[in-house]
Amino acid sequence: MSSASAESAEPAASGSSAAAGPAAPTVLPALPEEGVERVLCVVAHPDDMEYGASAAVRAWTEAGVEVTYLLLTRGEAGMAEDPAIVAPLRTREQHRACEIVGVRDLRILEHPDGMLEATLALRRDIARAVRQVRPDLVLTANFDLEAYGSLNQADHRAAGLSAADGARDAANPWVFRELREQEGLEPWSSRALLVLGHPEPTHAKAVSAGHVQAAVDSLRAHEAYLQHVTGHPAPEDFIPEILRAGGTAAGREHAVTVRAHDLGSLED
Q1: Nearest to residue 238, comparing CAs of 76, 96, 55?
Q2: What is the pLDDT, as a whole number, of residue 80?
Q3: Cα 48–Cα 4–Cα 126 angle in degrees, nearest 5
Q4: Number of neighbouring beta carbons within 10 Å of residue 6
Q5: Strands 38-43 and 66-71
Q6: Dist CA 248 CA 255 (whole Å)
Q7: What is the pLDDT of residue 26?
Q8: What predicted TM-score, i.e. pTM, was given to this entire model?
Q9: Which of 36, 134, 141, 185 is within CB 3.0–4.6 Å of 179 for a Cys-Cys bond?
Q10: CB-CB contact of 181 with 242 (8 Å)
């Protein structure tokens, strides 16, 4: 499959397009997952995985897939308290969120929250994690300048771009040679990079009502953070709606949608 492309079902038609009437809505194909054993999720902050994506994570872990979270910051600048207090608080909340969806491997780096930069050092850290985890799929969030109805937050942009670059760097033996020569980490090529929250998704992962509830509960685990955000809606008031919209696009009741970019082969 070519990068960021997907074959979609063609609506049945007979005769000319005028005679056929309005085209049937395109249904997103299911994400190819045959043989998927490990998934690495790379995001900027605690809670970034909990806005719907954790429903897919729960579906994966229930099926025996090993899911690793790589958080690039501790989210210490995300609340109006001393970062020395906020960092461990948000770490504890993220651990609780991970327990709810079956994630046993949570890794948090020490890059500065609110000042994340798409540097070679960040790419190296992500490439290192990819070589350590050896995931079939790498998942990150939308890194466009505009996202979610507004300007995308700077850390999200740096995190997603670096995840895309770091995932490819991990497969190249001549990039970050020290990972192999000094740390013994052999190159690894994942099948695909999956981008959450993209306005033009290519694939969908169907999730059950139980997975939707797990996603709601995982966001609730960020209790202190949600209390800090003025006017934040209750998770149960919008997470199911997001996942229902994904389900509509996929011809299912609920789904998480992604834009998939081939790194190796989605069809393997």
Answers
A1: 55
A2: 83
A3: 45
A4: 18
A5: parallel
A6: 8
A7: 84
A8: 0.89
A9: 185
A10: no
Buried-state track 109-141, b at ≥16 Cβ within 10 A, e below 16: bebebeebebeeebbbbbbbbbbbbbbbbbbbb
Report which listed range, 25-29, 201-205, 226-230, is most confident: 201-205
Q: What's the mean per-residue pLDDT of the chain? A: 91
> Which amino acid does the sequence have at 159?
A
Distance (Å, whole) CA 41 – CA 60: 12
Read off the amino acid at residue 145. L
Closest CA to 218 of 62, 74, 67, 48: 48
pLDDT in tens, 17-62: 334 445 555 899 999 999 999 999 999 999 999 999 999 999 999 9
